[in-house]
Each structure stands twice: as C-alpha cells, then as structure tokens.
C-alpha cells in the first residue's frame, strides 16, 4: 500500500494543465503563423492532454470531498462529514475556488472537443490557441491565486459545510453547471471571432463553424437563468423568482448580448452586413461573463471596500480589461477588412427587424449594466451607500420587453431586403386584428393592469404571427404534395429545423412573458397568524394549522408546521413549510412549501420560529397566477433550441460558407 | 441623406432613452443610512424610501402577536428612532443585534416593510468610554 496525498496530487494536475495551456496557446499561434502542421498538431494534443489533467484534478477534488479529506483546504473550508453524498459532490462548485475549478474543467473539455472535432480551417489553430489562452488565465488563478488543493498543516476533524442556502435545494446541483456550460460555450464563438480578426477572414466562416457552439451555449445560459429563477422561488421564501439582484443581473447581461448575437449573425450570413457589430457583440458577451464574475466574486457590488476580499476579484478585473482592450484593439487594427460595404435597402425588412431587436437587446444590457454599476459609481464619488431598487429595472426594461415582443411577431414575417407592400399590409392587418382582439378579450375578462393586458395583446399578436409563418410555409407545400397536412407538417419540421426551432423558441418566449406579466402583476402577498388548530381564509383557500413537526437527519434539523389547505370544504393538499438548520453553527433557513397548479401557485413560508412550546405560527402566504408557465416556457425554449441543433448540417450554413470565400480574404 | 435621417433618429432614440433612464434612476435610488445620518438632515429623507441600518435597542422590543405588529427603537449609539413594522420578528432578531429595514420616515417614526437581520460578527459594540465607530457599524450591516 502507498499513501496517496490528495492535495499535492490535485495541485500537480492543475500545474501540469496550466503548463500545457501555456504551451498550447504559444505553439498553436506560432504553428499557425509558420504554417507548421506538426506544431499545430502538438497544440491540439496539448488541448486533449490538458483536459485529461483537468479531469484528474476534478476527480481528485471529488475524492477528497467524498472521503472527507480535510487536509485539502477547500474541503476543510466548505465540506462537512454529515452532508449527504450529493451535497458533497456539488460542494465542488458551492464556493469560489471550486467554481473556478469547474469552469476550468469545462473550458478544457470544450477546447479538447474543439481540437478533436473542429473541421480543418485557417481559423482553427488560432481559435484553439485562444481557448488555451483563456485556460491560461483560469488555470493560472487556480494554480497561483486560489488553489483549492493547498494542504492544511493541521487538518480539522470536520468542516462547516457549504452555504446553507445552497444545500437546501437540489437545483444547486444543476444551476451553476448550466451557467458555466453556457459561459464556456460562448467562449468558442469568441475564440473564432478573434481568430477571424487575426487571419483577416471576417466573413461568415467563423460564425458558420461556431453556430452549434453558440446556440448550445445560449441554450445552457437560458436554462441556467430559468433554473436560477426557480431555485430562488423554491428557496428564498419571498414568493418571487427575480429580484434584479446584482448576482442575477451579471448572469443576465451576457445572455442579453448573446441573444442579440444569435439574431444579428443571421444578417451577416444572408446579407454580409453587421460584421464589426457581430464581433463586438461576441466580445462583449465574453467579457461581460468575466466582468460578472469579478463583480460578484470580489464583493464590490455590495461594497467597494470589500475589494480586499482576496485577490481573485482583482485578477478577474485585470483579465476583463485585458480581454476587452485586446479585442477592441484587434478590431480597430482590422477595421478595413471588417467594415461593412453593403447598405440597408429598407428598414422594413428582415434585416431591419434584426437590427431593431439588436438595438433593443443592447439597450436592455446597458440599462441593466447601469443599474448594477450605479451604486458603485455613487459610492466612489460621494461616499453615499445606495442601492438601485427593482423599480428602476422594471421601469426601464418593461417597455423594452414589450417592444421585443412586438418585433418578435413582425420580424420573421418580413422578407429579406425589402417588404412587398401588399403582403405586408395583409400581414399587418391580421397581426393588428389579433392584437386588438386578444387585448380586448383580456380587458373584458378583468385584466385591467397595463402591462399584463399589453402582454396578453402581444401574446395573441405573436400567436397570429406564428400561425402566419407556419401557414405561409405549409400551404404552398400542401398544394404541391399529394399528401395529408400532417405528413407535410412533419416533412417541413424535419427539413427546416432551424426555422421550426426558432418558432418553438419564440412560442416559449410568449409563454414566459405571459407567466412573468401575470405572476408579478397579480400576485397576492399576505402575512397570516395561525394558532394551532385554527383556520384562516386566503384568496379562496382555507388554511388550517393542524400541527407542528420536527425532523432530524444526520445533516439537518427541520422544524415546521403542517398546514392543511382546503377549498370550498374539499381538501386540496397538505403543505409543510419549515425551517432547516444545517449543523450546529449554521443559521436556520426558511424553506417554503408550494402547491403548484396550472392557473396559480399557493406558496407558504414560515415567518416565525417553531419550538416545542409555540402555540401559533406566522405564515407568509403568496398566490401568484400563472407562475408555473415560466418554468414550462423555459423547458419549451430549451427543447426548441435543441430541436434547431438536431439533425445534420443545414444547407443554409453550407451555402453561406461556400458563398463566403471571395469576400474578406486577403487579395 | 438616408444616413443623416438614421443618425438623427438614433440620436433622438438615445436622448429619450437617456432621459427615461435618468428619471427612473432618480426615483428608485435607495440610500442606506444610520439613525444619526437621518438626524443630520431629516428633511432630505422625509417620506423617501431608504434602507435604515442599526442595532435593536435593548428593552425596546414590543411585539403584538395578535395583530402581528412589531415596534422597537433602532440605534447607532448616537441617535435612536422608533420603528414600526407589520409582521413577525424574523428568526435571529434579538436585542443589540444588527438589523437593516427598508421603509420610510414619517415625522421621526420609521415605518418599515422589509426587515432583515444582519449577524454582524465582525462588529463589537463599544465598551464604556470607548469612542463610537459608526463607519465600522455601517460597514458591518451591509
């Protein structure tokens, strides 16, 4: 038997992976510049080896967590013997150093995948090298600044365990993973965009080769945001899912710019326009994900004085500045190659609407960024401590969201270049009809608040738009084919995955919008005091506090109330809102209980403590209509994204690549 | 010609957006203050939404559990003001403990609607005769 020290083993893996990243970044670029195929191949092999070593580091960390090896700093600081196994596994990304390990690992994984699967092109060696340069930063932080594998000289007998809020819900196992998969996925188009600038090939080649990566990254990021919303709904106890908290905002901004990006690349694919804009968007997306990590991890959003929270935050700030300056510098250097030569024929066209939606998403990003950074600016200049409340974000973004919905309906119906008057007039009449009818219907049914009513109107308008899109595609096919409607629909759905996928995603956006508008516009929120044995009425329900309960597992102690819910005398459900206590030193975490239905949720959270001698409980009771549809819409959105990615390579992409060659290449 | 029109249109949109954003910022900026900071300029904060931080004064807590009405004095050792809050005291709410409460001042009485307990482990109340470090208190509460 030999004694295996996990700490040094993990450190060694990280250091070796770091070394390989440095080698790969340099060898790839030198190899590409000298057209040395062997050097390029060695850089690709380094990418694969780097992934194997990063995987080794992850395995070592998991082994340390699962075997309670408290001689490893990270385990000593964030794990606990009594935690269940799944909590120990996800503890790896419950704190800073571990999250960077996860991020690095996924980054090496994507780089290795790229090195193995990316088609040979002049862009590839540079793109892989840039991915490796990003690895140099992350693995460098891991190796030199925030090494989770440092050895604790005198290991403690037990650790404090991860943050209580995180171990209180299984979603914590999913949400960060999705987030990092999204961020890392969007690093690939960034790397290719940089490669395109370096090689003076700013055509559609780089985006055609990264379309799948971009959409995958965007899908993961969307999933992460929805999952994060559901996590806060299930855990934070106020019955909401989005508070415009800085931590939420910084994950939202890259999503906004990425959404703009996946729309604007289509303009370049079809019309050879917006080249610099696309590069700008993907650079912004990538650097916003780094800036976000800096803002949340350094603690500056809560206080500028928290800057001293360790060197990881400043390292991210430096990297953010480096990325931004390098990328913009490169763009400036290559301006002559990148500059647009085509011009917009008419604003009333597909490209015009894509341009409009881009402006909207960038404005949304700017508003969120301003609201997030404003407290920092105020404190830096006046010393006053301020927060920018949710009203700011609501006031600035809600009108923009409505405009997004409006463009989402009309945009896909417009043809490229220039809309034909007659067709446009007919479509517009039908869309306006749907808008007015559904808005009036909502009003008659009692929806008298402005935003929910407008959202319903725009939802009807968008459904009409989807109907027009689908019928516009299917009716000519039906005439040509001698088959049934269902068969034609199926063959269209298989042939035009990209188009159908986008329709599914847009449909999902409508559902999410309605869910958000109603759950925030018509939520009922009350505090109710209930003596044990007595009942109270709430919004059509009768709540009866039947009993209190106490549970004990090795990992936690729970105390709560048993609340029977009836409606019109009929039993509906029994809810058990509780307070969880993880470990002796921890703080109690209120854990809400939710009754989900298709029309509304009933949400109970304990607002008072429960002990052996308590005679009453105070409940926060929230009823939010249609909130479930946000999660359903999120799932549909992911399905639509996956659908458009499925199947083989699209003819449209192949066409774009083939038609690209002459343009943008050096003469 | 077309370019000029687009440019003008762009500038107009930006101007409108800028105006709306600055208006929204002004109305939703929430200051974080201590009781003594309110005392220095009561008129400036009257009726405005603020986050008030401080310690719960010992012996001042009254909770009417039938009406779910909580009152206490909030202090930073320099000044103290009565706080009214509809709701049960949250878990870990205790005398001499740090709290941050969101709401508005009306004639020297703070009416709050969101009460947060801050367990400020790095702040220790001053011993007798020791000077009061208000900045440290404020920093520990955020």
Give a concise summary.
The complex is a heterodimer of chains A (667) and B (142). With 667 residues, chain A is of the alpha+beta class.
List key phrases describing it.
heterodimer, A: 667 residues, alpha+beta, Four Helix Bundle (Hemerythrin (Met), subunit A), Tick-borne Encephalitis virus Glycoprotein, domain 1, 3 domains, 6-stranded antiparallel beta sheet, 4-stranded antiparallel beta sheet, globular, B: 142 residues, OB fold (Dihydrolipoamide Acetyltransferase, E2P), 5-stranded mixed barrel, 4 helices, elongated
**Helix fraction bin of chain A:** 55-70%
Approximate helicity band of chain B? 25-40%
Instruction: Give the total of domains of chain B.
Output: 1
Biggest β-sheet of chain A: count, sense, barrel?
Answer: 6 strands, antiparallel
Approximate shape of chain B: elongated
Mean pLDDT of chain B: 85
Number of DSSP-assigned strands of chain A: 11
How many runs of DSSP E, i.e. beta strands of chain B? 7
What about the largest sheet of chain B? 5 strands, mixed, barrel
The CATH class of chain B is Mainly Beta
Mean pLDDT of chain A: 90
Strand content of chain B: 25-35%
Oligomer: heterodimer
